[in-house]
């Protein structure tokens, strides 16, 4: 195909009356709240069938219900398949149900599930370290491996994987050696899948690395957000209130002085970036790490 023909083809694709993701089925892990939940809603609005996944079944079910209740034509746009990404048996169930919902096909995976378990290096336990690598590295790998039969196909349909990272992974962050290591590894996983599955099957794989987005991970720890590990340990989420107040000082805007846009991002802005990456608008973007940071660290 000549460059002119290719340009015409792209131009013809810019009209999406049924949505950017019409006819596609997407798995989004960690989509019971925050960025993942907003991804699920935006994807469904763009015509996708969405598989909502979260360790908290009540949250997962609620997001799926809200999507289906809002469906303009009454069609079922979402299902809830709750489970723990640290349970290796979960992925067989998740992929099986996603394929059934998608009529035998899966087109998109967003590896979004994750949390932080902070500590300085000299005080960090093996459990803290191992858990973060398992959540942010092993779990995405296992999901992609399990879903391989639905991506390594030649049916002419577009397929895309997005692995969610963080500026902690691209630049490091004090107090987050474990989280930074896990999120840095995501980049290598992304590039490897892109190189293995791109040439024969046309699968696009990219990393989206978020900066300061307003979620439970960036709120004050004193607000009480937490997650419970598989063995029952309660892990507090967020940033210590004193650390937040020290950042702000007398001027609240001082907390964001290193962000050129001068503010944190919203979950909708974060999810919209993921939507853009999985959409046909990014059809020639592959193996990249796209930082969504408001300009921080540029």
From TrEMBL:
Name recorded for this polypeptide: Uncharacterized protein
Recorded superkingdom: Eukaryota
